[in-house]
Amino acid sequence: MPDILSEHPVSLDSYQAFVLEERAAEAIIDGDRWNEDRADLINKEAKEFMGQHGPGGVLLVPQIYSDKLSGFTQEYPDITNDMADELSDLLWYSFDVAVHNNIDPGAASAHAIEAHTGESQEAPTSFESMQQQIMERADAIKFNVASDSPYEISVVDSPLQAFAIAHLNLMTALQTNTDSPVTEINAEGSKDVPLDVAIGEYINILAYIAKDRLNWDVKEIARYSAFKLRQRKKYGKQIGNLFSEFTTQVIGTDSEGSSDQKIDSQTEAS
Fold it and tell me: Which of 67, 110, 112, 227 has a CA-to-CA distance to 265 between 20 and 30 Å?
């Protein structure tokens, strides 16, 4: 199978294979509480995504803070890269959960969009096609703010609220691992979201945030996570200019890569 750092387009199968290799290399044990334990790890990464590098949530509430974003990014010049670094961990864990539970991430992504929009979707096979589907339908991916409320928000209106709801749905699904069907996520009343839909909507919202709020294609977030783990194996966990190295060593030598995504950031390989 082609190496994920040089593959075009970046296939979801290749990234799944990479995750499987990492699981084998680290001898990850699939115990009885595996999903619950992974929920704890994803919770930790989500907290780091939102707060470890300054109040990053500001970037995810554009309709409220649009007039303050310029000053904010000057005060925290590395915030988008720092959040992208944490988002790459969340993406890896999302695929890790999918692999463990025999869920196809492309099919889960399409199923989640279908659950929200009622429109049948073809399962994407690459990060590029997945991102295109999500960006084209982002306005229609809506959540009730509460089970008894008719008020809905979309991932476009409030990426922060959408991320929070999708995160809670995934945490609940991991703890219950329900496979009962959900015909309408937005129906009034409390509903358990099946694990495949929860994973799909989580991946979809991560992809939307990466592109719309952090200015990174999700394929590069995926490749960066692979690059980061390989660097960690070589040099250990340390402070380093990993995004600069990634853009120079991977994107900079990549004739089909996103050459505009060349950003310096002092970030920890966390």
Answer: 67
Please tell me the predicted confidence (pLDDT) of residue 38.
85
- The answer on pLDDT for 216 being more than 90 is yes
For 228-266, letters b (16+ CB in 10 Å) and e give: bbebeeeeeeeebebbbebbeebbeebeebeeebebebe
At 252, give phi and psi (nearest 5°). -65, -25
Angle 213-218-222 (CA atoms, 0-180°, nearest 5)? 130
Residue 144's φ and ψ, nearest 5 degrees, are -70, 140
- DSSP-derived letter for residue 108 is H
The pair of structure tokens assigned to 188 is 């009034």
Using pLDDT thresholds of 50, 70 and 90, give the confidence band for residue 237: low
**How distant is the alpha carbon of residue 209 from its chain centre?**
8
Residue 89's CB: how many other CB atoms inside 10 A? 21
User: At which residue do the structure tokens 């999700």 appear?
Assistant: 218
Contacting residues for 221 by C-beta, under 8 A, at least 6 apart: 84, 87, 88, 91, 206, 210
* Phi, then psi, of 108 in degrees rounded to 5: -65, -40
The answer to whether residues 29 and 23 touch, using CB atoms and an 8 Å cutoff, is no
By the 8 A CB rule, do 127 and 211 touch? Answer: no
Average pLDDT of the chain is 80
d(CA 29, CA 23): 9
Instruction: Evaluate whether 78 touches 53 at the Cβ level (below 8 Å).
Output: yes
State pLDDT tens for residues 43-53.
999 988 887 66
The set of residues, in sequence order, having a beta carbon less than 8 Å from that of 230 and lying 6+ positions away, is none
CB atoms within 10 A of CB 73: 14
| pTM of the entire predicted model | 0.84
- Indicate the pLDDT class of residue 130, thresholds 50, 70 and 90: very high
Torsion from C-alpha of 96, 102, 104, 108, nearest 10 degrees: -90
